[in-house]
């Protein structure tokens, strides 16, 4: 393992990968991915470049992981909801609300990714698209199940329903403010209700 420099006070118990991700997320959010250097990241994290490259092959890997950790969380939660055995309308509503709440709770991650995803390497970009597609397909399967069983209207194709909801989710980082009038759960409930109303037979 690569040697470390003296660690900043209060961070000695935080594992190096998590510390690097936390610092990178803060700097990418404040300055932008392209204006943040590897040197600035390691200095702020109190580690050497060798330590960073031990865990992450490049700054590109850090950017990918910022988004991938959020998507992993959302995928796990979606899978749990989809497999719960509850009525499909309840499962879709829970899934629709959850992706809103988890996006707001990780708003810096979402903002960084949608602002900087075009700067990923072609390989990483392809990987992210595949990961997002898997999530969207599981979500769409709930819509299709409800349409197939007559719970939801078939007037709008399932693909368009999914694009409609995730278009709203992807714009959260441009307007949601933690000091605003709505809590994350209230925003989630409103958007989930809009989706369910659109699918009502």
UniProtKB/TrEMBL annotation:
Pfam families: TetR_C_24 (PF17932), TetR_N (PF00440)
Organism: Streptomyces roseus
GO biological process: negative regulation of DNA-templated transcription
One example GO MF annotation: DNA-binding transcription factor activity
DNA-binding region as annotated in the record: 37-56
Record InterPro entries: DNA-bd_HTH_TetR-type_CS, Homeodomain-like_sf, HTH-type_TetR-like_transc_reg, HTH_TetR, KstR2_TetR_C, Tet_transcr_reg_TetR-rel_C_sf
Protein's name in the database: TetR family transcriptional regulator
Ranges of residues in domain HTH tetR-type: 14-74
UniProtKB keywords: DNA-binding, Repressor, Transcription, Transcription regulation
Listed SUPFAM superfamilies: Homeodomain-like (SSF46689), Tetracyclin repressor-like, C-terminal domain (SSF48498)
């Amino acid at each position: 393992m690569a040697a470390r420099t003296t660690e900043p006070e209060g961070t000695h118990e935080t594992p190096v990968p998590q510390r690097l991700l936390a610092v990178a997320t803060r700097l990418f959010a404040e300055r932008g991915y392209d204006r943040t250097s590897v040197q600035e990241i390691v200095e702020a994290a109190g580690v050497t470049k060798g330590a960073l490259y031990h865990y992450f092959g490049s700054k590109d890997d850090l950017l990918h992981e910022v988004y991938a950790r959020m998507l992993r969380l959302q995928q796990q939660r979606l899978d749990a909801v989809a497999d719960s055995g509850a009525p499909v309308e309840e499962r879709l509503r829970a899934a629709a609300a959850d992706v809103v709440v988890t996006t707001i709770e990780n708003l810096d991650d979402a903002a960084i990714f949608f602002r900087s995803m075009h700067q990923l390497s072609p390989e990483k970009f392809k990987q992210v698209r595949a990961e997002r597609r898997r999530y969207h397909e599981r979500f769409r399967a709930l819509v299709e199940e409800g349409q197939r069983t007559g719970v939801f209207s078939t007037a709008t194709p399932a693909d368009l329903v999914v694009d409609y909801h995730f278009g709203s989710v992807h714009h959260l980082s441009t307007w949601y403010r933690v000091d605003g009038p709505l809590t994350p759960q209230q925003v989630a409930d409103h958007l989930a209700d809009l989706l369910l109303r659109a699918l009502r037979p």
